[in-house]
Write a structure and sequence with these properties.
Shape of chain B: globular
CATH topology of chain B: Ubiquitin-like (UB roll)
Shape of chain A: globular
Radius of gyration of chain A: 21 Å
CATH architecture of chain B: Roll
CATH class of chain B: Alpha Beta
Strand content of chain A: 25-35%
Largest sheet of chain B: 5 strands, mixed
Structural class of chain B: mainly beta
Number of helices of chain B: 1
Strand content of chain B: 25-35%
Helix content of chain A: 25-40%
Number of domains of chain A: 2
Oligomer: heterodimer
Number of strands of chain B: 7
CATH class of the largest domain in chain A: Alpha Beta
Order of helices and strands of chain B: EEHEEEEE
Distance between the termini of chain A: 31 Å
Helix content of chain B: under 10%
Number of strands of chain A: 19
Order of helices and strands of chain A: EHEHEEEEEEHEHEHEEEEEEHEEEHHH
Number of helices of chain A: 9
CATH superfamily of the largest domain in chain A: FAD/NAD(P)-binding domain
Structural class of chain A: alpha/beta
Distance between the termini of chain B: 35 Å
Strand order of the largest sheet of chain B: 2-1-7-5-6
CATH superfamily of chain B: 2Fe-2S iron-sulphur cluster binding domain, sarcosine oxidase, alpha subunit, N-terminal domain
CATH topology of the largest domain in chain A: FAD/NAD(P)-binding domain
CATH architecture of the largest domain in chain A: 3-Layer(bba) Sandwich
Largest interface: A-B, 35 and 35 residues
């Protein structure tokens, strides 16, 4: 069995931020990621980031990932475990993990930061299991990591920022996008992204959803229809697109498995993507020594995940007695930056989710031990 | 199909390598995911559902969903979306839940 002061699960923006801030306070950190390189989903983000100037606005995700990963790799207090999947949680802050095909091993930590990210949501419709129906993030992975095109003609379902950005990235790679369908009455993502894809000729059909996919061994057609005010499909409004790919950009859910196992109180917050661990403003869950950050703490975006990770890393290190002159000012600054990412109409959903999470008392939380 | 020219990305590829899919020779690039090489070669059906035997293709591409579990060099349930391609790999569609040798 191995030991460390702080174990961090996940090497995306939240995990990288947590590792760097905790290690810079003098804590010994082990950072786990199941992939062969650090960066999480940042490594697929070819677009430039918005948001606060302090948080890499104007830089592309791939570059941000490279910079953070290089700093982490160079830090003497951080041990990086790549190709290492954390499989389970045991009592008293022990994590079961497997590196590659090596034997299972256990690490005991004084503090654990779960920054496991999110997984893509599925949508229920007939034949939704056909090859060619893929998560929008999978398209980014295929195109931006390996340079392979998902197909030649795509229908995108969902007009949040991921749907809009993936549409633009498909066009950039020379793939035709037949349309974007959006069940809600209005476009979900930033209008600057929506305008860009509209100018390039992609229709965005609000109050529309997919009715069915058609095909035998691969998607051949997608049938969409209009929705009424009760979100039900209206017969007679069907349109058929001859597409070989249907991209689902219908949201993400937090990867909270380890948090359930650690018996953290969990709250269902739809605005944050599903069940999230109840946590305080130091990112501590209800299980002592287990902190959460990034999408695992509620779906947001990469800049916020990085800030949450940095804060969680500081608090985890503080819990072990590490400190430095001026740490409180840094905490206040990072909290302010995080708040500034959540202002305005685009931050409405996340603010509502945070409020809902905060207002729920422990008695309303689900816990597997009751 | 592969991206030939991208306005932002410089895609670096490993050496071209040969592997087999159900006995058929296919070429890909070392270090890319097995999935990417198969997809480029037009192989979209990677597995089948256990009960109804419905075709399954790539879905998440980050090792979450198990839609792409295949036999690789005799080892069952390899998630080909996160397994790097190597020269001479033997990739096969898997029937059922897979059996360890």
């Amino acid at each position: 069995m191995k030991k460390t002061e702080i174990a961090i699960v996940g090497g995306g923006p939240a995990g990288l931020g947590a590792a760097l801030s905790a290690a810079s306070m003098g804590a010994q950190v082990v950072l786990f990621d199941r992939q062969y390189s650090l960066g999480g989903q940042l490594v697929k983000q070819t677009h430039k980031f918005f948001g606060s100037k302090a948080q890499f606005a104007g830089e592309r995700g791939i570059k941000i990932a490279e910079d953070l990963a290089a700093k982490v790799a160079a830090h003497p207090n951080i041990k990086v475990m790549l190709n290492s999947t954390v499989l389970g949680y045991y009592n008293d802050k022990e994590l079961l993990f497997q590196q590659g095909r090596h034997d299972l091993d256990i690490i005991k930590a004084d503090q654990i930061v779960v920054a496991a990210g999110a997984s893509e949501k599925m949508l229920a419709f007939p034949n939704n299991d056909l090859p060619g129906i893929v998560g929008a993030g999978a398209i980014q992975t295929l195109m931006h990591i390996d340079g392979v095109l998902p197909g030649s003609n795509v229908l995108v379902v969902g007009s949040g920022n991921i749907g809009l950005i993936v549409t633009y990235q498909l066009l950039q790679a020379g793939v035709h996008v037949a349309a974007i369908v959006e069940a809600a009455p209005r476009i979900g993502g930033y209008l600057v992204h929506a305008s860009k894809v509209r100018r390039l000729g992609v229709p965005i059909l609000t109050k529309h959803s997919i009715k069915t996919a058609i095909g035998t061994d691969r998607v051949e057609k997608a049938v969409i229809w209009q929705l009424d005010s009760q979100w039900q499909g209206i017969e007679g409004t069907e349109q058929t697109f001859e597409v070989d790919t249907i991209a689902l950009a219908v949201g993400l859910s937090p990867c909270a498995e380890l948090l359930w196992q650690a018996d953290c109180a969990m709250v269902d917050v739809p605005e944050l993507g599903g069940f999230v661990a109840h946590h305080n403003d130091r990112y501590e869950t209800t299980t002592p020594g287990i902190l959460v950050a990034g999408d695992a703490a509620g779906i947001e975006e990469a800049s916020a995940a990085l800030l949450e990770g940095e804060l969680a890393g500081i608090f985890a290190a503080q819990n072990l007695g590490h400190s430095f002159e001026g740490v409180e000012a840094i905490i206040a600054k990072k909290r302010a930056e995080l708040a500034s990412l959540r202002i305005g109409p685009t931050g409405e959903k996340i603010r509502a989710g945070m409020a809902r999470l905060a207002e729920r008392g422990d008695h309303q939380c689900l816990s597997k031990l009751g | 199909m592969r991206i030939q020219d991208h306005p932002i990305l410089e895609l670096k590829k490993g050496p071209r390598v040969k592997f087999t899919f159900n006995g058929q020779e296919i070429y890909g690039y070392e270090g890319e995911s097995i999935l990417a090489a198969l997809h480029d070669a037009g192989v979209y059906v990677l597995s089948h559902s256990l009960k109804k035997h419905r075709p399954r293709g790539l879905f998440c591409a980050i090792g979450h969903c198990s839609s792409c579990s295949m036999r690789v060099n005799g080892v069952p349930n390899v998630r080909v979306c996160v397994e790097p391609l190597r020269e001479g790999m033997v990739v096969e569609t898997q029937e059922g839940k897979g059996v360890l040798a």
